[in-house]
Amino acid sequence: MKTRLALVTGVLLLPLPACAGIELGDSISIDGFGTVGMYRAQDGVAGYRADPTQDVYSRNSTRFDGDSQLSLQATLKPGGPLSGVVQLLSKRDVEGSLRPRVEWAYLSWDVQRDLNLKFGRTVAPIFLMSDYRNLNYAQTMVRPPSDAYVVNPITHQDGVSAAWKRRFSRGALLLEGFYGKTSVQFAQGTVDFSGLWGVAAKWTQGPFVLRAGQVQARLAVQAPAISAGVAAIASLPASYCSNCAGVGEITQLERSDVTIWTVGAVYERDDWLVHAEWMRHSGGSIAIGQVESAWLMGGYRMGAFTPYVSVSQYMTGTPNPALRAGPAAPPAVRAQLDYLNVSNLAAGNADRKSASLGLRWDVREKMALKFQFDHVRARAPQIGTNATMVVPTSLLGKASGFDGSIEVFTLNLDFAF
Amino acid sequence: MPASPSRRIAPRPSRGALHWALRCAALCALLACAPRAGAEVVVIVSAKSAINTLNREQVRDIYLGEEREFPGGGVPLLTVLNGGAAREDFFAKVLGMSPARARGIWARLIFTGKGTAPKEVGADEIKRLIADNPNAIGIIERDALDASVKVVLRP
């Protein structure tokens, strides 16, 4: 606790003397951003993760990880069309470590006025907020809506990306594309994305922004516990389970092709702001299969204060694996098979709707204090744990008593320097 | 007994007092207006620059990273005053947003590698910086203008 408190205090004090990025000569600059965050999920049974790539969660406890982070970026601009960027990010990872990771490291080349190429570790422009997904200070809410952004937690990719921008009389068109690979660590293991590519088009006209994109990738899940579980199911004799031997074909752990479609829109006129996004994820893996998700946020700027409301939802469409009990299956095995069917082989059912209410206060330039209250309603609270909510299943033995609703309170201080 | 004692308690102001009050009010108004008049912001480039005029949208696009080059070419070096009423005017009249909102946009530009935030400098340095660099653009108070820089926009 002492260490955590010292860290939070240190992070809090760090930006104060350094109000502006540091310039080391004309060609190198150091900039940074961060968040000192605090969140609490108000429920005695179920826990809630502010960040699904962390191992920890809040259950009637106040946590200082979640959104807390510190990032430093070095930009090298020697003049001319080439520049380089290295960005380090320290945020609690799945192993509980704050060890800084290389978020971006790329060489940027302005091929011509309208065309830019980047080589190395760059942003993977998948969603409306992918560009600044980690940069909480540039967002109105405390974090991108979890119900939508959990669909794909990628923040960077290793490869090449291209951006072409052209102004027209009525507006501006930005076309982006990327190709590469990346991997994401979860509490249960690692998901490798290979052959990862995507395209997106963004049209900006006056107060409107409209964005649409598509991303494809091949997933490979390395999760020893999940693989062992699948192997255990597959080893059930036909007399207990008539079709469990073929369960490996359903799980698609080693290989699964996924596609994501997104459409997003922004309207910002005078003091009003409305942001919305819809996305669909298709794939056959039990790690993540068919998902449809959407969010809508509206806010109003009143000087330094921006109150906002948001609604979002996450709905899965993954088919039931339809494991069938064999003639000799005892009641306990039948119950287990029923549970595996409704929980999509224990992957959980994360279907939920959320409503949020928040206030952003721009305390001063480059510093914002945000408070947000989320009410999350799970559609299938009896099924148990998923990436965001941690709750014992009620389908095997004693009912957990979880009624499906969680309230989450967040207080974050975001800054840039 | 006087017909109207209240008149004695609150006598009509004398001609001299009224005149003094009016002069005082005029002076106060002048003082109140003076900083505004002096703080009127102008957008400037170097006297060596080939650019003679820009409209508000062009300046806004350049400062918010929507446009990476000047109309005639050249990557802009963005500068902005680090304080004062002219700076406030610039955010309100040219960018059309609060400094905090502009900060959010600049932070996005920096941390996505898509652009840079303006260099924030004092009134003396900003003029020297712009005068020396044909690609620099910035703001100053109108009263601080001299021949080393030229105005491209009077918002």
Rounded mean pLDDT score of chain A: 89
Fraction of residues in β-strands of chain A: over 45%
| SSE order of chain A, one letter for each helix or strand | HEEEEEEEEHEEEEHHEEEEHEEEE
Write down the overall mean pLDDT of chain B.
Answer: 80
Shape of chain B: globular
SSE order of chain B: HHEHEHHEHEE
Instruction: Please state the overall shape of chain A, judged from the principal axes of the Cα atoms.
Output: globular
In spatial order, strands of the major sheet of chain B run 3-2-4-1-5
Major sheet of chain A, described briefly?
16 strands, antiparallel, barrel
What is the makeup of the main sheet of chain B? 5 strands, mixed
Helix content of chain A: 10-25%
Uncertain regions spanning at least 5 consecutive residues of chain B: 1-11, 26-38
The secondary-structure class of chain A comes to mainly beta
Please state the CA-atom Rg of chain A, rounded to the nearest Å: 23 Å
Distance between the termini of chain B: 65 Å
- Structural class computed from helices and strand pairing of chain B: alpha/beta
Helix tally of chain A equals 5
Terminal CA distance of chain A reads 27 Å
Largest interface: A-B, 38 and 22 residues
Assembly type of the chains comes to heterodimer
Number of strands of chain A: 20
Give your account of this protein's structure.
The complex is a heterodimer of chains A (417) and B (155). Chain A has helices at 2-13, 146-149, 224-234, 247-251, 331-342, and strands at 22-24, 28-42, 47-48, 62-63, 69-76, 82-91, 101-112, 115-123, 156-167, 172-185, 190-205, 208-222, 256-269, 272-282, 291-300, 305-316, 352-364, 367-378, 389-390, 405-416. With 417 residues, chain A is mainly beta. A 16-stranded antiparallel β-barrel of chain A has the order 2-5-6-7-8-9-10-11-12-13-14-15-16-17-18-20. In chain A, strands 3-19 form a two-stranded antiparallel ribbon. The two termini of chain A are 27 Å apart. Chain B is an alpha/beta fold. In chain B, 46% of the residues lie in helices and 16% in strands. Chain B has helices at residues 5-9, 15-38, 56-63, 85-95, 99-111, 123-132; strands at residues 41-46, 77-81, 119-121, 136-141, 149-153. A 5-stranded mixed sheet of chain B has the order 3-2-4-1-5, sandwiched between helices. The relative contact order of chain B is 0.22. The chains are: A mainly beta (417), B alpha/beta (155). At the A-B interface, strand 2, strand 5, strand 6, strand 7 and strand 8 of A face helix 5 of B.
